[in-house]
Each structure stands twice: as structure tokens, then as C-alpha cells.
């Protein structure tokens, strides 16, 4: 990798919406009665708190579903995309989505919160770049409700572009994919696979987030050496292990009886960091029990800068998830059935979610981090002190890691390294 190249996070989220085959176009006279009020989520709060709670909920669900696999995804991508979808949901459908996403029950708090979050994820300097973008892509003949389009534009900065999904679905798919590629510096390509747009598609919602950054304390590539990584008491794999030791190895650090927590910050005063949760006995349970929104906040408060000898593996992960069953189990089944109510989009109850797919990639090396992620949601028509011992942070066994916006505490990415690729 070019020495000037710095860590990169890319996130693209897509929500694809369609309509019902019979009578789906002629809706100008559709009723626009006041929608039912969604049931307030049990843990309604501010947007960042809700997004982080959703991050931890989804992480634990994925971890429980697959106890011995790597995990990596971007919760802020999924929650942002589904929040725009939620703006068009009503009744039980809206209540379930709000509950799973932990959306604020207060409309003003929710909308201004997402507007602030979107604006806050845009900053940059010589060392880091962070930006996000949303967009709506609408079937040109379909009469969406003006208030839905206006809400997406005003609070989510999602401007609408009309496309011919009915007559030119493949060309429309390529247009959207090119936008995603531009927003992500070509790191996410062919986000919408062939066949994902068809004549029944009515709306595609895209979200992209892009980050580059170098470590504040970079690792010396000449000191990286192969070492054992303990997958389990009975299995090890060889990995390239980076190291940072010596008097200048000063990191935000904390430990409990069961785990060590280390924050590796990115350069340039961007207030972005990677928080690593390393269990002391090699059992992931301690780290995963700490991976709750409140527990993470307490750990971050406990961090104090001190000398730490750090040993951390270079690794790359590629993960893919199909989430309808997961989200259904988490408490939002209605959105995936014919009983779904997205009448806030078009004045009808003809739309329901048919697919939620998330793909993510991360590469961690001596200079920084490179990561990319994409989400697709398809909705279709129904037919240390000197005298003290210096801690050693040796990540040679499974661990959890979180990429954070330290200004707001927003979890941008979250993952688990259980079995890194062999060297």
C-alpha cells in the first residue's frame, strides 16, 4: 500500500421500494387520512443513543446466531436507511421499526437528531476525511406523497431523482450504482446486483458514508512479525502481528477483572477512534457482555492515557448478511409481510420489504484502516505511572472492536475478530 494511503471507511446503504402490480400507478386520488400513531419505542431517546442501542442489539443477535464466526457491519448505515424508510411507515409497521431502531418517540427530536447526525458526519483535514450522503431514486410515473419527499429532503438531505424503473430497470440500476461508486471513491461497486431493480420497483433510498484516517500512533511495518492467534484453547492460526512499544506508546486504556479496553485514535484531532475490547482469558463472553450502549459509555469514561505495549494483528474481513429473519426476530415482522403499512410514502398499503442485505469489508494495517459496507433494503409490490508495571495489550485471541465518532459517541462500525485469515 502506498505510504500516503490512509485508513478508509466506506458505507453505502440502499433501500429499494416497489409497489403492487394491480392499480399501483393510478393513485392520484389515494386517501391521505391522518396515519395511526406508532407505538413509542420502549427506549426512546436521542438519535445517537438509539443508533448505538440498535448497534449492540444487532451485534448480539448476529453473535448468538453464529457463535464462531467473524462479524463486521455498520449500524449507522442500517439505522439511517431504515429511518428514512420509517418516515413512510404507519401503524404497527412504524411502531415495530421504531422499537427495533430505538427511534425517539418525539417526531421533532427524531428528525432534527438525524439532520444533526448527518451534518456531524462531515469533517476533514490533512489526515482524515469523513462524509455522508443520502439520495432518493423514484419511479418517474409513481405519485409519491409530497410530504414524504419533503421530509426526506429536509431532514435527511436526500434529494430525489426520477428514473424509469418500469421501462429501463437495468439502466436505472447502473445509474444508482454509479452514484454509490462516486460517493465511496469507487470502493463500493455494483451495490445493487443484476436483477435487483425490476418494473415493480418504485423507490430506491441510498446512504453512503466515507472515512479516511491514519493512526495517531502508526505501527512500524518493519516490526510486524508472524505470531500465533489463539482461536480457541485447541486451535491457533498464524497472523502478521503489529506492535507498538516503548516510551511513546501512550494510549487511552482501561481494564476490569475480565477484560482490557484500548482506544487507538486517528490522527489530526478528528476525534475518531477504534475501541478494542480484549477478554483476559480468551473467552469472548466478557467482551460481548461489555458491548452494550451503557457499558461502552462507562468503559470510554474509564479510559486514561498511559503507557501500553500494544500487539495487534493486521487483518481483513469480508462479511455478508441477509437480515429479514434477523430483524423479524428483533421485533419488526410486519414490514416483511402483506400487512405492512408504508402508506406514508404513497397513500396506499401496497408496499412491503422483501430483502435486507448488508455487506461489509475492513482492512487494518500499520498505517490505519480501510473499510467498506453496503446495505440494501428491497420493498416490493405485493402480487501509565512510571513505577507501575506497563500493561501488555496482546490481541492474540478473539476480540471485539468498535469504530467511534468520539464527538458524539456514535458507533460507526462494530465487529468481532474470531478467526483472522492466516498469514
Automatic annotation (TrEMBL):
Source organism: Methanoculleus frigidifontis
Transmembrane residue ranges: none
Occurrences of domain Serpin (ranges): 56-420
Name listed for the protein in its UniProt record: Serpin family protein
Family according to the record: Belongs to the serpin family.
Amino acid at each position: 500500500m502506498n505510504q500516503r494511503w490512509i485508513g478508509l471507511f466506506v458505507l453505502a446503504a440502499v433501500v429499494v421500494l416497489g409497489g403492487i402490480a394491480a392499480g399501483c400507478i393510478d393513485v392520484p386520488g389515494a386517501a391521505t387520512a391522518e396515519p395511526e400513531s406508532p407505538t413509542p419505542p420502549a427506549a426512546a431517546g436521542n438519535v445517537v443513543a438509539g443508533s448505538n442501542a440498535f448497534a449492540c442489539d444487532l451485534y448480539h443477535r448476529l453473535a448468538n446466531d453464529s457463535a464462531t464466526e467473524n462479524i463486521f457491519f455498520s449500524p449507522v448505515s442500517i439505522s439511517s436507511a431504515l429511518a428514512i424508510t420509517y418516515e413512510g411507515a404507519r401503524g404497527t409497521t412504524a411502531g415495530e421499526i421504531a422499537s427495533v431502531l430505538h427511534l425517539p418517540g418525539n417526531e421533532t427530536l427524531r428528525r432534527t437528531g438525524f439532520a444533526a447526525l448527518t451534518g456531524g458526519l462531515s469533517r476533514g483535514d490533512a489526515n482524515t476525511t469523513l462524509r455522508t450522503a443520502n439520495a432518493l431514486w423514484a419511479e418517474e410515473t409513481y405519485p409519491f406523497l409530497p410530504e414524504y419527499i419533503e421530509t426526506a429532503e429536509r431532514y435527511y438531505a436526500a434529494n430525489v431523482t426520477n428514473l424509469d424503473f418500469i421501462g429501463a430497470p437495468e439502466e436505472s440500476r447502473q445509474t444508482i450504482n454509479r452514484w454509490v461508486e462516486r460517493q465511496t471513491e469507487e470502493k463500493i461497486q455494483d451495490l445493487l446486483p443484476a436483477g435487483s431493480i425490476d418494473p415493480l420497483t418504485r423507490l430506491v433510498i441510498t446512504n453512503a458514508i466515507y472515512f479516511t484516517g491514519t493512526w495517531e500512533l502508526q505501527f512500524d511495518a518493519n516490526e510486524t512479525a508472524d505470531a500465533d492467534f489463539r482461536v480457541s484453547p485447541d486451535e491457533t492460526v498464524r497472523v502478521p502481528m503489529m506492535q507498538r512499544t516503548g516510551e511513546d506508546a501512550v494510549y487511552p486504556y482501561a481494564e476490569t477483572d475480565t477484560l482490557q479496553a484500548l482506544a487507538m485514535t486517528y490522527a489530526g484531532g478528528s476525534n475518531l477512534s477504534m475501541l478494542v475490547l480484549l477478554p483476559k482469558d480468551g473467552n469472548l463472553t466478557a467482551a460481548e457482555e461489555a458491548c452494550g450502549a451503557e457499558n461502552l459509555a462507562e468503559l470510554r469514561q474509564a479510559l486514561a492515557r498511559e503507557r501500553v505495549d500494544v500487539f495487534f494483528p493486521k487483518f481483513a474481513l469480508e462479511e455478508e448478511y441477509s437480515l429479514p429473519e434477523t430483524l423479524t426476530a428483533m421485533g419488526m415482522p410486519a414490514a416483511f409481510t402483506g400487512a405492512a403499512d408504508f402508506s406514508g410514502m404513497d397513500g396506499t398499503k401496497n408496499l412491503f420489504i422483501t430483502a435486507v442485505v448488508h455487506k461489509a469489508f475492513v482492512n487494518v494495517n500499520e498505517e490505519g484502516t480501510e473499510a467498506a459496507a453496503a446495505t440494501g433494503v428491497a420493498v416490493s409490490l405485493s402480487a501509565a505511572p512510571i513505577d507501575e508495571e506497563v500493561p501488555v495489550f496482546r490481541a492474540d485471541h478473539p476480540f471485539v472492536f468498535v469504530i467511534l465518532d468520539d464527538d458524539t459517541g456514535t458507533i460507526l462500525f462494530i465487529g468481532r475478530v474470531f478467526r483472522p485469515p492466516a498469514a
